Amino acid sequence: MSIVRGGIYGDPLGKTGAIVWGKARTYYGKEPTTRRYVIPHDPQTVDQVERRDIFRMAVNVAKFAGSALWQNAWNDTLGELPGWHSFLSWAIENLEPGALEIDWTATPSEKLLGPVYMPSVSTTGASSGQVKLTWTSEVPGDHASADDLLFGFVSKQDQPDLESSFKRNTSGTLRSALTYSFTGVVPGEDYLYCVWFRHEEPDESYTYSLARTGIATAGA
Fold this sequence. Notes:
Layout: E1 3-4, E2 12-16, E3 19-26, E4 29-36, H1 46-65, H2 67-73, H3 83-94, E5 95-97, E6 102-104, E7 111-112, E8 121-122, E9 130-135, E10 149-156, E11 166-174, E12 179-183, E13 190-200, E14 206-208, E15 210-217
Antiparallel strand pairs: 1-2, 2-3, 3-4, 5-6, 7-15, 8-9, 9-12, 10-11, 10-13, 13-14, 13-15
């Protein structure tokens, strides 16, 4: 039986006959949905269980990375879907079965977030317990300036579902700084990094760059 909250003007929730009412996350917030009721088929194959584990891991990754990073920069990078779906899709693509659990792939794919210039990134020279990123100083084109801000995160390659393995840059680092170090990581361990630049346009709106990704070893 479905429940209509708010009387005849409310949105139904639950099951009415062969129709299931619910909500879906959209760019404009949660919207009512309907679907046909079906009895789920659950064969529990190896592939099915693996995909469920990857999806569950991706949800945790998105949660631990935090909405402050993906809710704006990743909007509309998967059709017109909001940042949550876009980031989740990228995470699913880059998680794979490891020796004991689900790990980040050794060759993570990058993600185009917008037209802002993104230079190549070097990950050498880190001090102990740091992942150090450096980049070049050029600012070509109409969508780049020295005061663009770098955002992103690192996550331990073989433990991506642990909140403690995430280190974030949510306040932004100037492009002109040419370097940023994620601190407090485990010395000698491998980390996935995912970083991008934000540029303020003349109309005071924000555009974003490619999300540059890779695997870096923390300084020992």
